[in-house]
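sorry for the late reply, my laptop died twice this morning and i had to redo everyting from scratch. anyway the thing you sent over, i finally got around to it. pasting the sequence first so we're on the same page, its 123 residues, then the predicted structure underneath. double check i copied it right bc i was rushing
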Amino acid sequence: MDKRPSEIINDFLRFLERAEDEYRAAYADVGAEDNKLQTILHDIEFAPNKAERNKIATKLQQSRRTRREAKDRVTLYEKVHELYTDRQYANLLKALRRLQNDQVAKEKYLSGNREFKKRVEYE
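ok and here's the structure:
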């Protein structure tokens, strides 16, 4: 086996944390693009001429594409986010962290320099 069990558990816990961070960042990006939409729509409404409206419409198109990418990232990590934040799974996550710590201790013991101490002397 290439990785120790503690490393695999640790990788999974880090994945959950990174997925949660990615979900929150993507969700914030969607909100930022939604706010930008209102400004762009007002700019289109008050554009002085057709050329200016076309420039603003191009910005709108870019904003919508950026929003779609962010929304896709939200959807990608949504189920992981739900598991990570669900109180029902909080004990499971705590148990996995405890398991990881216990496993590290066992692995240190097994890979360390062990000595047998005699309990009794015999002839």
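The chain has one domain: 5-109.
thats about all i looked at so far, will dig more tmrw
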